[in-house]
Design brief:
The structure is a single chain. This protein is of the alpha+beta class. The chain is built from 19 helices and 18 strands. It has a six-stranded antiparallel beta sheet. Helix 13 runs antiparallel to helix 14.
């Protein structure tokens, strides 16, 4: 039982350990996560700042080299000779070789530069170490077209032909492009291409770690990777929207916590580089960073579960000695509540088995059961006798009520010398008296009750003649149905009386029929009716009234109250009464009685 002392004691231990350990583990986890987050943010951003300075240094060397070549007289002389259509091939070749030597000397001064080459639109390129190559394949390469058509100055990591010929290396390079002799790529005849090995960018970047699996990426202003990091596409696709928001935002650096398409918690660390719109991006699963912390939390949960099991065992052991006798005592109380005193006594522990406060309560309750059983027996017998007396009094109250009215009618008929009508009234009255004087019958056959109503109706027809229109209908009644005695006659009498009190002609309809498991008795008249407030007051007074109040009432109009009191006394909550009326529109009273069968020689009281 959930509300038992044992259950509450066990629940208390469970809540104590669960709540305390849950709060402790949650506090430790949140505080540790906050510390780790702060450390990761500061550490990652600090390393990214260092790497950003390194990138700025490399870019500065690239721009210095490009500026030196762009502003050199040697470059202008070479460009003029190469563009002069009147110069001989020997003169041009000499200019190319001199320009190659200049590129070699200049590049050796910058340690981060891998190679430099000048590309001419007619299909020739000049590079370091006397490399003068006449071929136009570079004109179809994507980096050349993008620079010429879209002014894309930085080329992500790729394999360069110059590197293949000079250094015999297929390692990817990152390149910067610049037009020579003009500022617009479309107008320039010559293109400068400065190559830096991708490893020069990638090696220091690989030393920046985020957790165990987090990686840093260098991306351009379009969100594309600049270095050869094969796993970028997978990681970037999971954080594409967050990277785009970071690039579009005003913040130079920051940390973003989000969930990817699979619902996994991710952390994005970014820093924007000032010179070219590049951005450093680090993406790492939150679970990777908090793996040790999650392991600690799981250990705490396992420990909490073990302590919880121990606490449950202790709680069960402690509570068993207390709650077991109490449970039996509560079980005995439930049987007493249902009136089963024998079963209650069998549930109680034996005397002397529990030597504490619970044992004293058990002995006291056992004595209380014995006294209660005797008291209930005495009270039940007294109430039964009192109920029988009240019901008989109500029943006797009906007979004189209609008898006096009938005797007045006989007197009037005798004075008028209406012999036939007098005989009919006497016969009907005799049948009614024979039925009514059987006061030992509280529950009668429904057909006998209806015969009584028909006899009474014949008296009313003689009394009022053509001024009374009265009908009594029966529909689908069970053969063995029974009802409380004297139910319809008082209602019929009141209906006729109040109809004549306000009209010269009375129209009364009585209908008795079956509805599901009930017998419905309906009486309708054309009297003055009642307001809704009056109907509510009548029903409330009838529901609150007791038989002794009706017996003590000095009012002469006792018909409806008498009927309702007897029906409620016998049927209880199974009885229903409905009053339907409008002022000036007549009255309709409907009684719903549960169907009962006739039992020969068995009275209401004997039936309990």
């Amino acid at each position: 039982m959930f509300y038992s002392l044992r259950s509450r004691l066990i629940l208390f231990f469970v809540l104590l350990f669960v709540l305390s350990f849950s709060a402790l583990s949650l506090l430790i986890f949140n505080e540790s996560r906050t510390i780790i987050r702060s450390y990761i943010e500061s550490s990652a951003l600090e390393k990214m700042n260092e790497y950003g300075s390194y990138i700025d240094m490399v870019q500065t060397q690239i721009y210095d080299l490009a500026s030196l070549i762009f502003n050199s007289d040697q470059t202008d002389t070479w460009d003029n000779i190469a563009s002069d259509t009147s110069a001989t091939e020997g003169e041009k070749m000499l200019a190319h070789i001199q320009m190659s030597k200049f590129l070699t000397q200049t590049t050796n001064s910058y340690t981060s530069i891998s190679s430099v080459a000048l590309y001419r639109r007619e299909g020739l390129w000049v590079s370091m170490d006397n490399q003068v190559i006449k071929e136009s394949s570079f004109l179809d390469q994507s980096w050349y077209k993008q620079f010429r058509d879209e002014t894309v100055r930085w080329v992500p990591a790729h394999t360069d032909d110059v590197e293949l010929k000079i250094r015999r290396s297929d390692h990817p390079v990152v390149s910067m492009l610049m037009p020579i002799g003009a500022f617009e790529p479309k107008q320039a005849k010559t293109l400068l291409k400065v190559n830096v090995s991708a490893d020069y960018f990638l090696e220091p970047l690989s030393r920046i770690h985020l957790g165990e699996s987090g990686t840093m990426y260098l991306i351009d202003q379009h969100g594309s990777p600049l270095l050869t990091q094969a796993d970028y596409e997978t990681s970037a696709n999971l954080a594409k929207n967050e990277v785009a928001r970071a690039q579009a935002g005003r913040s130079k650096q920051g940390v973003v916590y989000f969930k990817n398409n699979q619902g996994e918690a991710q952390i994005l660390v970014y820093k924007k580089l000032a010179q070219n719109g590049w951005m450093l991006v680090g993406i790492v699963p939150e679970s990777d960073l908090y793996a040790p912390l999650l392991k600690l939390r799981n250990s705490i949960m396992v420990l909490a579960a073990a302590l919880l099991l121990i606490s449950l065992f202790v709680a069960f052991w402690l509570s068993n000695g207390i709650t077991r006798p109490l449970s039996r005592l509560v079980s005995a109380m439930r049987h007493v509540q249902r009136g089963d005193f024998d079963s209650a006594e069998s549930r109680l522990p034996l005397e002397g088995t529990v030597r504490n406060e619970v044992g004293f309560a058990t002995v006291t309750f056992r004595n209380m059961i014995g006294r209660l059983r005797q008291h209930i027996k005495t009270e039940f017998e007294l109430k039964l006798l009192r109920q029988q007396a009240e019901y008989k009094a109500l029943l006797m109250q009906i007979n004189p009520h209609f008898l006096f009215n009938t005797l007045e009618l006989l007197s009037s008929l005798a004075m008028q010398r209406r012999t036939d009508d007098t005989v009919k009234v006497i016969e009907s009255l005799g049948k009614m008296l024979r039925f009514g004087l059987r006061i030992s019958d509280d529950l009668v056959a429904l057909k006998e009750e209806l015969k009584y109503v028909h006899d009474y109706a014949s008296i009313l027809r003689i009394r009022f003649g053509d001024r009374l229109w009265l009908s009594v209908e029966e529909d689908g009644l069970p053969e063995q149905a029974a009802c409380v005695k004297f139910v319809l006659q008082p209602l019929l009498e009141n209906a006729v009386k109040y109809s004549f009190a306000h009209r010269t002609e009375a129209r009364v309809s009585v209908r008795v029929y079956r509805r599901d498991s009930h017998v419905v008795m309906s009486v309708t008249d054309n009297g003055p009716g009642m307001t809704e407030e009056q109907i509510r007051e009548v029903l409330e007074e009838a529901a609150a009234a007791r038989p002794d109040q009706i017996l003590a009432s000095r009012e002469r109009q006792i018909g409806l109250g008498n009927v309702l009191a007897r029906c409620r006394l016998y049927y209880g909550s199974l009885f229903e009464a409905h009053l339907d009326s409008k002022p000036g529109g007549g009255m309709r009273i409907e009684l719903m009685l549960p169907i009962r069968e006739v039992y020969n020689d068995v009275s209401l009281i004997d039936r309990g």
